[in-house]
Amino acid sequence: MTQTASDAAPAPAPPASAPNPPGRLHRAWSVAAVAFVTIIGAAAFASLPGLLIEPLHEEFDWSRGTIGFAVSVNLALYGLTAPFAAALMDRFGIRKVVALALLVISGGTAATVWMTASWQLVLFWGVLVGLGSGSMALAFAATVTNRWFTARRGLVTGILTAAGASGQLIFLPLLSWLVVHHGWRPAAVTVSLAALAVVPFVWLLLRDHPADVGLAPYGGSYAEKPAPAPGAARRAVTVLFKAARSGPFWLLAGTFAICGASTNGLVKTHFVPAAHDHGMPVTAAAGLLAVIGVFDVIGTIASGWFTDRFEARRLLAVYYALRGVSLMLLPMLLAPSVHPPMVFFIIFYGLDWVATVPPTIALCREHYGEDSAIVFGWVLASHQVGAALVAFLGGLARDAFGSYDLVWYASGAMCAMAALMAMVIRRRPAALTA
């Protein structure tokens, strides 16, 4: 067949780097800024559950166990959705998935204003908000970083991780003030509006891939946008079954489940009502929880530095052991007012909050190589399942025993067990990791 001149002419080669004029900011940074604002908005609905337990208990006479069950459904779905969220973004695009997730979160939160039965709390806050938040948070940050940045990935990952803590710092004091002075409904509406307000930013300013706007990733070379990957979800399940046949996976999943139980499930959900039980004002307790978010950023960065220099499993053992000791001491620190020992606990717990993440990722990378990101997604799912169980069981224990003391002591013991589990993880021989 004879080829025409137009058929034979090669397509012009795309630029090797972003064609930004000198002095212009690369588009990747504006995409990262949109992601930062989105994650801050997402922090609003992550901040609210612990503030709702007492108001919902007083208004509807629902048990703390019932309210904790709704929170546990939220946390479990957040974790179980996460391994598939990246697959959804590969299939349908970041912008569509994140915008839809924010709309689901906004609708689910707004619907709680009219609820009259506890099953509605489980449906609106547990199912809808859980699915929406699981479809965007961690997978969103990772996907944006991987697609738009070749250089500065560590910096961008740290910034987007810090966005969650920054959002917690912004929203917790505001939401606690609204709950105390105006009731829980205005706080729920505020969360709904925060999620809704971010949607235009996502839809108008976010792009799925640098090639959509004719750019290369920041610090990298131009590459065509990959075709949708409908088999990504199947790969996530395949990797799970493969990893589940190895011992390190269960040890990592077990330790991270305890991590979630002792952070999101316990402290984020039950610290405010537990402090209120001892006479501390809700606004003061929420302020302490917000301070944890500040030191969370410092602790994460420091832990990454330590992970580059020390054996990851030993770091995990130290982190969990110290966390367990602090939880054992917490019942003696709770009081009507904030005092120096409580401030020390808050600072320490903030530093330790997600310090477990860098060494856990390092161990996933060491044992599972190119599948490590997906394996970590499933390990993260165990984190949220552990959080969900303790969010529920903590409320039941408070109903049964009249205090949270047993919950603190049991969680401290679990952290001691996690420290032992971390030490059992063996280093993978160099010949096998090569």
TrEMBL record:
The chain crosses the membrane at residues 31-53, 65-85, 97-117, 123-143, 155-180, 186-206, 249-267, 287-306, 318-336, 342-363, 375-394, 406-425. InterPro entries: MFS, MFS_dom, MFS_trans_sf, Proton-linked_MCT. Residues 11-22 have a biased composition (Pro residues). It is a multi-pass membrane protein. It is found in: Cell membrane. Pfam families: MFS_1. Residues 30-430 form the Major facilitator superfamily (MFS) profile domain. The keyword Transmembrane helix applies. PROSITE patterns: MFS. Residues 1-10 have a biased composition (Low complexity). It comes from the Bacteria. Residues 1-22 are annotated as: Disordered. Its main location: membrane. GO terms for molecular function: transmembrane transporter activity. SUPFAM superfamilies: MFS general substrate transporter. Keywords: Membrane, Transmembrane, Transmembrane helix. GO terms for cellular component: plasma membrane. This is MFS transporter. It comes from Streptomyces roseus.
